[in-house]
Amino acid sequence: ATVTDLADRHVVVSAGGTREPLDPVRFLGNRSSGKQGYALAATAAARGARVTLLAANTELPDPAGVDVVRVATAVQLREAALKAAADADAVVMAAAVADFRPAEYATGKIKKVEGQEPAPVALVRNPDILAELAAHRGHPGQIVVGFAAETDQVLANGRAKLARKGCDLLVVNEVGERKVFGGDTNEAVILGADGTDTPVPYGPKDALADAVWDLVAARLP
Ligand code: C5P
User: What segment(s) does the record annotate as region Phosphopantothenate--cysteine ligase (predicted)?
Assistant: First the structure.
């Protein structure tokens, strides 16, 4: 049977990883492939939602029937997320957002100078988009979901992060051996602000995506 529990809903999903430019040819980035975010977008569309996918530096084909908005940096992602979230029923931040960006952008390529040490790279903090979205919801009853990769004390760190971010659900991944970036599988625990935790066994990213939407759908007003 086809589940259409997200019909007439607008959901926003971020995917990929931000890139923070140093100069026209260099950036600080991360290894996020965007596959989990794309799985979330595709499964939401399959369940009947109107989907806005905020894609940060991904190289995946656009999922069918999804509005794709391309962004590069955390600042651009923030702008696009606040705009898209204004009328969204749920926002899922699956993108890996750089915590810091270079304090300065060199408009010309940074050059090495013979006999001179390189200048240190100063960093500044990026805005925490998830925390901001959770604190200023587009409309009442909007569900805000975050992701977190943890290496140790997964549940305790996840709970603390959920509280700090103020989101409704936090999908906590244990980063390790077979759970590598870029793969098609994932394993997670989905923590709820209501104290629930839902383990999702090792499996395809689509299955984790559906587990997230099950919990979101149950919380929608
Ligand atoms: O704090 P941490 O980076 O572990 O949190 C991860 C979650 O927060 C992810 O959902 C990510 O998309 C989101 N995030 C964000 N803005 C940042 C950093 C992370 O929205 N600057």
Answer: 11-221
Q: 13: Cβ below 6 Å to ligand 1?
A: no
57 is catalytic: no
130 is in an annotated binding site: yes
pLDDT in tens, 159-183: 999 999 999 999 999 886 655 567 8
Q: Does the beta carbon of 93 sit less than 6 angstroms from any atom of ligand 1?
A: yes
Q: Which of 130, 153, 212 to mutate to test ligand 1, by most ligand atoms within 8 A of the CB atom? A: 130
The domain 10-107+120-219 is placed in CATH, from the list 3.40.50.1100, 3.40.225.10, 3.10.420.10, 3.40.50.10300, at 3.40.50.10300
pTM: 0.96
Q: Where are the domains of the chain?
A: 10-107+120-219
What's the Cα-to-Cα distance from 103 to each of 20, 23, 28, 51, 100, rounded to whole Å? 10, 11, 12, 34, 9
Predicted local distance difference test score (pLDDT) of residue 141: 95
